[in-house]
Fold this protein.
Amino acid sequence: QVQMVESGGGLVRTGGSLRLSCHASGRTFSRNAMGWFRQAPGKEREFVATINWSSSGTRYADSVKGRFTISRDNDKNMAFLQMDSLKPEDTAVYYCAASGIPSDSLYYTENWYDYWGQGTQVTVST
């Protein structure tokens, strides 16, 4: 059974930093794209960042470009999201996701992802 578990969320002040981690178990995703999405209260879930299996490519939502960095460790079956210069509008539940299709492509829509974590809350105070 595949499990995706996020960690690292919490409460931080505006301008602060957090590093989210995602650990996958049950199968390897070393040849699959991984991504981060988020859902703020009352809003739909939205794309944040994606990384291909080789880490040669990344893509970010415009709202986080230059502040967030996605990375991965294929040996550990993990993905990370370094979040700097956090703003109150970054407050959301953050979800890790993995594609079920081996490919070196980048995916930034939910329909490409087959496996999801339960989410971790990030709250940015003013």
About this structure: The longest strand covers residues 18-25. The chain has no helices and eleven strands.
